[in-house]
Amino acid sequence: PDSTVGGELTIVLQALPKAYTRDMVEDMLVNNGFLGHFNFLYLPCDFVTGSSFGYAFVNMVTAQKATECFLRFNGFNSWVVHSDRVCEVVLATTQGVCENIERYRNSPVMHHHVPESLKPVILNDNGLHLVFPPPTKKVKAPKKLYKQPVGNAEYELKVLTTTPSVGHPGLVTKQVFRF
User: Fold this and answer.
1) Of 41, 57, 161, which is closest to residue 113 (Cα–Cα)?
2) CB count, 10 Å around CB of 60?
3) How does pLDDT run across 32-42, given as a tens digit for each residue?
4) Which of 25, 33, 148, 171 registers the highest number of CB atoms within 10 A of its CB?
5) pTM of the predicted model, to two decimals?
6) How many CB atoms lie within 10 A of CB 153?
């Protein structure tokens, strides 16, 4: 198809349970035979609740594997958490690992305050996470709040705000609340 880039194809897994994490989506792909057949994965999440938005971008390394992934997961509902959702698989607007890297490398999701578990990942043929290429410009902090687990039962709420001051039109400050 015209949407392939060098044979690879980026798909979107839609209607995932909102309780799913990036690691759970990765495990689902690996446990269904796709280890080494995808090289990019991103599960967008709400920084306030930590819940996913229910969809994930997955770059399959070949159109054949993308077709197999479609056949396996379109209609899928065997979740590891309780959910009545039924997965749908569609083509992504952004195609290819390089294009996805460029799309996200300067995005607020790549800011150092965002937990690694909420960021997109690049994977090698063995499924190991690779270092994401550095940004090409300064990455802005997310404008939302997010909770990050600390220890066993505590949470840390980080409030990122932009405060104008003399000589600094947009100084980002952080307040941390533990509960």
Assistant:
1) 161
2) 25
3) 999 999 999 99
4) 25
5) 0.77
6) 7
* CA-based nearest residue to 161, from 179, 142, 148, 177: 142
CB atoms within 10 A of CB 68: 16
CA angle 75, 24, 105 (to 5 degrees): 105
CA geometry: angle at 114 spanning 113 and 120, to 5°?
145
Select the more confidently predicted residue: 178 or 70. 70
CA 173 – CA 109 distance, rounded (Å)? 17
Q: What's the angle, vertex CA 60, arms to CA 50 and CA 20, rounded to 5?
A: 20
Q: How many C-beta atoms surround the C-beta of residue 1 within 10 A? A: 8
Does the pLDDT value for residue 171 go beyond 50? no
- The single residue listed with the structure tokens 């994930």 is 56
Q: Which of 162, 147, 138 is nearest to 114 (CA)?
A: 147
Contact (Cβ atoms closer than 8 angstroms) between residue 164 and residue 170: yes
115-125 mean pLDDT: 93
> Residue 8 carries which side chain, given as an amino acid letter?
E
For 78, the token pair is 């065997």
Instruction: Report, as an integer, the average pLDDT of 61-86.
Output: 95
User: What is the residue type of 23?
Assistant: D
Helix-strand-coil split of the chain, %, nearest 5: 20, 30, 45
123-169 pLDDT per residue, tens: 999 999 999 999 999 988 887 655 555 444 344 444 444 444 444 44
